[in-house]
Amino acid sequence: MGMKEMLEDIRCKFEEKVSESQELSQLEELRVAFLGKKGELTGVLRGMGQLSAEERPVVGQMANEVRAFMEGKLAARKEELAAKALDEKLAKEALDVTMPGKTRAKGSLHPINQISDEMKDLFIGMGYEIADGPEIEYDYYNFEALNLPEGHPARDTQDTFYITEKMLLRTQTSSVQIHVMENKKPPIRIICPGKVYRADNMDATHSPIFHQIEGLVVDKGVTMGDLKGTLEVYARHMFGPETKIRLRPHHFPFTEPSAEVDVSCWACGGKGCRVCKGEGWIEVLGCGMVHPDVLKRCGIDPKEYSGFAFGIGIERTAMARFGVTDLRQFFEGDARFLSQF
Ligand code: DAH
Fold first, then answer.
1. End of a domain among 57, 92, 127?
2. pTM of the model
């Protein structure tokens, strides 16, 4: 084979291999194999010395053309492969911006807090201040100062957890009345939302821990009429504008007179249904006129001042509002239950 044929042969072989190549690294291998120091083209050029003087420039020119051709092919294929690699990479990394993202479940206010906040808003609107008191309480504030001396039978209904003989977990927010009246002179207008404790077993309507909201108003000339008017506003706000209230005589040691308050049933409007057990009325709170002895004990003269007080169960109100029939659900922390409110 003459040198021209050999050059043509190399050119064809190279062209075929380059067009078959799929990787940039293969191109580099081909460059070394054909155009490198020990490459095929270089090998042929080395044999040029044996050519005649006429043939040498002709073959030389042809060799240069073949080299230029090969370099051109390499560069073109390199560009093609780079473009292909980029396309593949883009296809692999493609992002569907219409896919839904990962979302984090949003929490919400506990139903007990929702009801408590609503009650606070209402009373703050009527000029009340929020008062606070300790959950670990002296016997004195929880019982004695509220006319429940040691051995008083009414203590039996509010058995609690004792820390020492004289310290306990408060059974009612009424204890805060005493703290407030010891520290502030009338006019007093406060509410106190908070946790209370009783040694009760847990069932659908009882829990050893629950929440109350206490109200206390002391001023000159405060009457039972003021109490009733206040509770009417409260009942209409919480249970609907058509709600009626009814005061039933009752006994609480720290108020005189005392009453339990019923509201007309929010489910049937008073006709009688399953919710009110056919009664038409549902009991929602206890209240009364602050007992003169309680005022006196706190250094407030009952001849000059009078007051009313009330205590509302928050769980009971939340159960009514949300149609919950088992109190325990409020304390289980199950998000499937809580996310409904
Ligand atoms: N502390 C009472 C209870 O837990 C509720 C109560 C009744 C509070 C009458 C009062 C009140 O302030 O005047 O059963």
1. 92
2. 0.72
